[in-house]
Amino acid sequence: MSARPLPLRILGTGEYRPVRILDSREFDARWGRSEGWTRRHAGVASRRVAGPDEAASAMAAAAARVALDRAGLAASELDAVLCANSVGEQAIPCTAALVHRRLGLQDSGITAYDVNATCLGFLVALDHAALAIAAGRWKRVLIVAAEVASAGLDPDDPDTAPLFGDGAAAVVVDGGDGDGAPALLAARLETYSAGADFCQVESGGTRIRIHEDPEAYVAGARFRMQGKATYRMAARLLPGFLERLFGDAGCALQDLAAFVPHQASAKALAHLEVALGLPATKLVRVLEDRGNQMAASLPVALNAAVEQGRLQRGDLVALVGSGAGLSFGGAVLRW
């Protein structure tokens, strides 16, 4: 059964890229590998690394300003600011409040809060915004995602250190203007918690307490990933998930103008292209010069598709990814 479309129009997108570029050849030199080994292994030629003055909220605000400018709006015209980071800038307050202040909204009373679904946070926030707009609660919403993955990586882990990158992206949405207008045709999130241990940052919550075991707390602050197990589970479950998503949307894969995936890894992108029979012209890739940017990955890739002129009004576009949990998420939009 097809889902009921929700009015949703993307008015503007934006991206912020940190200043420092970390080339994969630096990993080759660090690990004594031949030049090009890291690029082949991770599928990433370079990625950006945030500096001390590039906090997550600062990057998110910079991307937001670009999106707002493209939308022709001032921050004061928003009804809500949703932040979709996997890892917040700090435990309390939420990162959205920090972005809100950087945008000059500190005395506005405009709603701001975080939505955390790890790498799928942007999709959940987009669905949340569409539901609130359809209910008449909001008119215009800013969604931001900014990640400083480098803060939690083990620099000696060849599977994660060269794969992830830092950065931010933002979108501004409203409800469009009538029948046949841009819409969220379907959104779906499925969680299979049998894979909950596959991707973890164990510290930062209440289970590991710094005053009880400081060493365990420091060790738990590093990101750990069981890459092979994650890939196997995703490869097994993703086809069925996509079938249900497109069934909800009432369209088929071949109807899409663009397929925007979470930039999980080169292997995952290659699997998608082959398994789905996607033409290279439809699959949006930004992994090679950005790395996996966690929750920022999907809006960064969407912004790239917009800047490349790959989406025209009326086109169908799908955003699909996976995240820690293990969860799968997707949305189909009429642009």
TrEMBL record:
<dbReference type="InterPro" id="IPR013747">
    <property type="entry name" value="ACP_syn_III_C"/>
</dbReference>
<protein>
    <recommendedName>
        <fullName>3-oxoacyl-ACP synthase</fullName>
    </recommendedName>
</protein>
<dbReference type="GO" id="GO:0006633">
    <property type="term" value="P:fatty acid biosynthetic process"/>
</dbReference>
<feature type="domain" description="Beta-ketoacyl-[acyl-carrier-protein] synthase III N-terminal">
    <location>
        <begin position="113"/>
        <end position="190"/>
    </location>
</feature>
<dbReference type="GO" id="GO:0004315">
    <property type="term" value="F:3-oxoacyl-[acyl-carrier-protein] synthase activity"/>
</dbReference>
<dbReference type="Pfam" id="PF08545">
    <property type="entry name" value="ACP_syn_III"/>
</dbReference>
<feature type="domain" description="Beta-ketoacyl-[acyl-carrier-protein] synthase III C-terminal">
    <location>
        <begin position="248"/>
        <end position="335"/>
    </location>
</feature>
<keyword id="KW-0808">Transferase</keyword>
<dbReference type="Pfam" id="PF08541">
    <property type="entry name" value="ACP_syn_III_C"/>
</dbReference>
<keyword id="KW-0012">Acyltransferase</keyword>
<dbReference type="GO" id="GO:0044550">
    <property type="term" value="P:secondary metabolite biosynthetic process"/>
</dbReference>
<dbReference type="InterPro" id="IPR013751">
    <property type="entry name" value="ACP_syn_III_N"/>
</dbReference>
<dbReference type="InterPro" id="IPR016039">
    <property type="entry name" value="Thiolase-like"/>
</dbReference>
